[in-house]
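User: What would this chain look like folded?
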Amino acid sequence: ITEASRTPSLFLKPGDSAPCLRNSITGNSDSGIDMDGYGFLLNRWYHIAYTLSDSEKRINFYIDGKWVGSYSLKNIQLQSITFNDGPLYIGKHLSFDGFTGEIR
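Assistant: Here's the prediction, encoded as structure tokens.
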């Protein structure tokens, strides 16, 4: 894995808390699902999951057990996703100016 390689990620858009599932295969490629209009509420737990289907070349995105969208991996230039066994970072980004809490 090089410095430019990426892995699937999930984040919330600033301002409206809309979830975004992104797949950055390289530093120049950023594809995925933007759930505009689906903002999370404060003081409520959500179960968030996504599955990768190799046979269908698709990512399925679920919130609280309900399917909310999918993205075709065929739209990604390299049609491959780089996974790694490194640590999971929550809220780690150079421009992150905030705090995290109540994460289980």
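The chain has a mean pLDDT of 70. If you want, I can go into more detail on any region.
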